[in-house]
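question for whoever is on the cluster today: can someone run the full assembly for these? two chains, 1055 residues total. i dont have access anymore since they changed the login thing
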Amino acid sequence: MIRHMKLAVVSLLVLLGPALAAAQESPAPANSAAAAAPQYSRKGADTCIACHDDASILSIFKTRHGSRTNEHAPFGHGNLQCEACHGPGGAHAARVRSGQERPTIPFFGSKSAAPAAVQNSACLNCHRGDMKHGWAGSTHKRQGLTCASCHDSHPARDPVRVKATQAEVCYGCHRQQQADARLPFAHPLAQGQMSCSDCHNAHGTNTDANLLGATLNDTCFSCHAEKRGPFLWEHAPAAEDCSLCHRAHGSTQPAMLTQRAPLLCQQCHSQAGHPSLPATSNSLPGRSPSTYLLGSSCMNCHSQVHGSNHPSGSKLAR
Amino acid sequence: MQQLVTTRPRMQVSLLTLAALAALTGRTALAADPPSVDTSEWACNECPFADDGKTNGSVEVGAINVSDDAARFGRYTGLDEKGVYPVLGGTAGQSRADGRYWRAEAQDIGIDSAALSLQGGKPGLDVAIGYRQQRNHLFDTTRSPFAVSSPGVLTLPSGWVRAINTTQMSSLSGALKPVDIETERRALSARLRAVLGDGWTSYADYKHESRDGTWRQAAGFGFSAIELLKPIDDINQTLALGFRYTGPRLTAQFGYDGSFYSNRRIALSWDNPYVGPARGQFAQAPDNSANQVSGTLNYRVADNTALSLVAAFGELRQDDAFLPYTINSLPLTSALPRRSLDGKVSTTHVALTITTGLDALASWLRGAHMKLDVRFDDRDNNTPVAAYAYVVTDQFTSAPASNDPYSFKNQRVLASGDYDLRQLLRFIPDSQRLHISGGWRHDETTRTLQEARDVTEDTGWGRVRWQPAHWLDVNVKWGGANRNVDQYQAVPQIVAPQNPLLRKYNMADREREFAEGTVTLLPVAKWSVTATGRYANASYINSKLGLLASREEGATLGSNWAATDTLTLFFDYGWQRMDAHQAGSAAYSIRDWSANSIDRFRSGSAGLRFIGLAKGVDLDVHGFFANSDGDTTLTTPSVDRLPTLRTRSNGGEVALSWRRSGPWSLRAALRYEHFDADDYALDGVLPATVPTLLSLGAQAYDFDVVSAILSVRYRFGADAAGGDAEPAKSDKDDARE
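^ ran it for u. tokens below:
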């Protein structure tokens, strides 16, 4: 494994070295763009508001972006106001001849043709530190998403930053997760009591699925600390990976289990005797009702499935 | 503790060295600063700034009527009982020209999903506190003969006649009392952000989260079990402190995260309703703590090259005093080897990510990116091992057993790349987009005290994204994975051995293939249609018993259409199916039974939002459904089919808001939800249905509930003109950044 790692790192450095060396010589695209710098509007926001005076646009003044006292905000003293984010609007605001199409605003407009990286640079100039370091190389970045794909900075409440409405923004792309949230056993996203960002960092992390915690279990334990242990008697899969038994986005089974007990347990437990017996319909009420199938099945006795701290709990029954 | 591979430190040093080399070989090629612009005439006279020092906000008052009791309907919202609930909430805030501000928000005051927040600050300093509660009502159909005589002690009524099974418990029916299974979670949080200057900021987050209530947990005596009401009364406190640095090329974060779990109920004891030992006792979750320090460095070597290094080191501790082997009088052969566990687990996480564009190598490589991600995760369990006498379910002694402190280590290398094929296929016009990407990932997992010590898995995938026109986007990904187990062998310390033909599915040889695709259409402006599909198939190729194969298929179709500036329509539909095939051996020899389970799920919703339906009137209408079916067929060798596990859920909501000119507005909403389920594990399983299970008699959900809301809102200050100010960063309403 170590050999694999070293090989991979060295391989990339072989690629990286020339790339970096060449980068020193090649002019940055931004510099090229600066050479033909487009014009800004004559009066800044007053020019823009002359046309764009909808309440949905002007609500930005109820946000931090619309603060004139914050020196870092677009509307802070001497800053570029609307054009700080939307880019130079001189051409867009200029008079056009009859029949001539008005040039688009460079960034974030519905017809903006600017590449995602260029649009994002408008945000990252200020928010680079907010990215929690994972944006470069993150899945969303590589998929070509812009900041505006998720964020709307104009409303008083950016929907993706409000717990009750965030999931709807994510569901715009993550349709499968939208369906999962309606599964009969699921985390309370539909009730607005949880948001996707309670577990995931959309800006990218080093973990699978952009989880917030260092591992999947660490993420789960942030709300389920009682299952963290360490216990005297550990249940190995519970200590290793919650998703071995649970589906975090929802399940057809109670407790968001991947499978109904006893079958779930019998995928790993095959000792002689009752663990290996098939629980058939003969165990149903009206026949020979059995604890192996009904109620909590195996967990009618082995209920400490996340671990036990009882000295006699080696079978997770105490 | 088991000693794992010892080359880790050397590897870390090596990675750090390489990372430093990578960083140092590049010279900055950062984007130029924005051009200077003469903004002296940019007076912003038309800008409706809200930092005028006036208080603004809104207050909402009203009532909700819920038509029926239904635990599930009110799960997480608190609207679980028939009756009238208050609607009480509001916002208030003020921003001043000097940058000072405060915001307050309250929601759902008076019901069990209430939230409050208060935030304030000045330039460079933000402080927030919040409160949130959440009720989780699991069942309201349960009954129990037990009473709580003191915290953590369940007793049966005096005169209880013990019997060998539930059908002979003559005093049971008269002793049953309705009980609710529910918990309430309350969280108090505080947050501080301070700008220290020169790119440095600091943060501090504290959260005090408590739970109380009861939950369902069973326990047994031999092969007879009892469903108990487990008391929940615990607190988890978390603390995060740290510093962040943001510079032109380097961002960094150094922090501490702590979590301290405290349980006021370390044990639950109960009277035995069966013939046998007098009482039983199990341990509840012990107090424990987790402490971690971490550091993150992100270095932007060039415009398209970044290097990220994350390292986190932590420790989990647990040292709660042990309970006795049993609370019954039994002849024990040995005393407890320790008073407490002194459990210690060290955790290490190190990750290095390098992302670079290959533009500079060749012109045709413009638009090519590569990413290398190397990660190391270690859970090293240093908990002392000792032999503990074993009292089987408080009844009789058995051979001592030693604890197994499991350790895990995972090392991962992930290399991936993507390429804009237009750079090579010059005939593709700029208006189109054709991206290919692919990757390879190698995982190596080492476990101690388990059947498979070393497991490796290689995963490869490819992806094509084709955007032939601005209105069509096609994204297809496919791949496969191969997991190999070095050696699978029995664990000697497990006294009752596993069938040697079994392979635990997380440690079994496995071949997996997967595919997924998305097609997005934009037929007209502001109308999107998205269809997705996915497929995954796994074969456990060397498993004779246990999970042998699994498959998942799913598809979705969704659409959003802003038909006009005031009318938005949406719908979505989802379908998925999950299959699993497994085998067992009742005779503890070769496979003599198998099971096929199929879970199917369909869901959908549709609705519209009409802003300005009439003057000042907005309308929201939506409906939904969600149906699941689960079938299990056992072959023993006769074919036996369990009853279908079934849920049916549907409902909808109509909401109207009406606002005339001025500060007052009215909101009215009618919501309906139907839910019913068939669950053979619950349906008809009353307290005495199963002779060897004294159950709580929880029944599968079945309800129809209508809730009606009527409220008025009064806006004041600037908000009287419409909309609310930016909310406080409350725990409830501000999703994590």
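summary bc i know u wont read the tokens: The radius of gyration of chain A is 28 Å. Confidence is low (pLDDT under 50) at residues 21-35 of chain A.
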